[in-house]
Design a protein that fits this description.
The complex is a heterodimer.
Chain A lengths: L1 E5 L3 H8 L4 E8 L2 E6 L25 E9 L6 E3 L8 E6 L1 H15 L5 H8 L1 E6 L26 E6 L2 E6 L2 H8 L5 E2 L3 H16 L8 H10 L5 H5 L8 H4 L7 E9 L3 E9 L20 H20 L9 H4 L7 H10 L4
Parallel strand pairs in A: 2-6, 6-7, 7-8
Antiparallel strand pairs in A: 1-9, 1-10, 2-3, 4-5, 4-12, 8-9, 11-12
Helix pairs in contact in A: 6-9, 6-11
Chain B lengths: L8 E12 L5 E8 L12 E6 L3 E6 L10 E6 L3 H7 L6 E8 L12 E7 L3 H13 L7 E7 L8 H7 L4 E6 L9 E2 L2 H7 L7 E6 L2 H13 L7 E4 L15 E2 L2 E2 H4 L2 E3 H5 L6
Helix pairs in contact in B: 4-5
The chains are: A alpha+beta, B alpha/beta.
Amino acid sequence: MEAILKRNRLGQWITELQERAEIYAPDFVEDTWEFAKVGRGATVELNHSNTVRPAKRFVFPQREVLYRFRIENSQSPKLTDTEPKVESTVVFGVRPCDGRAMVRNDRVFTCGFSDPYYQARHDNVVFVGLACNAPPSQNCFCVSVGGSPHSEDGLDVLMTELDGRYHVKALTDKGSDIVRSAGDLFQDVKAADMDDVGNAHAIALEYSQRSISSMEAVAAALRRNFDSPIWDKLARACIGCGACTYLCPSCHCFDINDEVTNKSPLTGARVRTWDNCQFPDFTMHSSGHNPREDTGARLRQRICHKLLYFVETHNMQQCTGCGRCITHCPVGIDIVKIANVMEEGVWQ
Amino acid sequence: MSENVYLPQLARIVHIKDEVPGARAIKTFRVEFMNGGGFDHEPGQCAMISVFGKGESMISIASAPTITDYKQFSIMRSGRVTTAIHDMKVGDVIGVRGPYGNKFPVSDWKGRNLVFIGGGCGLAPIWPVIQTAVANRMDFDKITVFYGGRTSRDIMYAAELEKLRGQADVHLSIDSPEEGWEGYCGFVPANVMDKPQRPDNAIAITCGPPIMIKFVISNLREMGFADEQIYTTIENKMKCGIGKCGRCNVGTDYVCVKGPVYSWAQLKSLPQEY
């Protein structure tokens, strides 16, 4: 389902959707681009490049109560709030790299054991993507990992900005629903509109991005170099801050801990929070033994998980080329550079 | 919404047995599910134990799969959760979710000699296999059990091991000589070397401290055991138990799902990161 929305009608579409859902869109909040809740009557511009934090938090929040527990007078524990509470949400301005990351997140959270918290959020969120027309940011490399500036994967709707209007393409039932529900705001797509969409997409692909020439060669090199001393060298500057994985749209590792709010009667919540493979205690046994005991082993885990293990398990990289881990690394660790070093074997 | 995989079932502690004293004490907890709960398990599988207010810890199920009234867990006092459960008493309630992980392929081993080699707390994960083998004694040829602790006070399941002697060859060891000790003195791998096992038609199952497993496997290889004839388990820190939280992986394998049971042939193909 495809339609045209005049740029000056975007606000009205959002207002109509606010009757049934919380609306989020990128906004410049406290000196940084974030997905922020759109207030009634607020203007949404969709003129961002990309948000600092990815869209994964709408399906996998940074902190989430799994359930609450209470033990009264040494009676049996009572477990409450065991079902995830979610609100219908529509997220505008999701870049295609974050959309493709959702495909990866779906694999992790719904294959094998289904994760009820993720599933509930996933069922109640609509991701409205925005194709990248402008030249890429300095660390974009979506094309090298199989994506594109107008990839539809993992999105419910893809919007492409044209002169004074958007081309709006619904990609799922959820997507069709939010377009159809405001049908009178939209116009039919004409041949000239499709020409403009084709041009916008073609121009976006002509811009140079950073690049990795062969993901197959990188995977083979990673397999070959598991025990290489190169990892210690590559990780020498790492301070283990974990910015790379917290800001990654497809990193899914989490911790589960009990937060006690009252000792007697014992009351608290079992809480899931984002965790990070770059932290030493992520894998440390209670005995003190740590299978990944230095920064080299931990960097190797991050890179291999993204570009080798996930490929072997799910036949796709677990990296969609958004470049956040490069842009925000305080010491300049760079997954593109590492992939190229691996492939070329330049240290040998 | 379908069943919530993160929600534990409540289970009451009905019996606690002190196995090993000391800073790294081992106790065996027998728990009965409440509210008609429960689940079946296979030998080698694990369960996530909850102490509410402290957290969860992955523990191997030490009772035989045929026992449906209760489950047993032999737990070493080590971290936050295991320390908390050591401080619990009969009647207290814990959470249990599972079962998780793969199993020892015991039914594939019919007609074969089984050699069990355990050390320290490592008798617990292989105990349900031993129980399964003994319960179906006619299905197997010779059954041999090696087990060792640092001192005689570190021998877990001491009474059960004595009872086992009727159906299996049991070779116990402690690291250094003690007055009155009639078994072997020395490390577990040395005890195995002292009583060489024939690899023909045999399966060796070993579990214990990583350093013990390393030398046991090396000794078994020296005796002529093929990689496919040696089974062990690996343990890693786990939070979810269902292949999602991302920390227990060895290469592509999440140990909580693909493990904890591996043949040495399988384990050799994984990165040495456990």
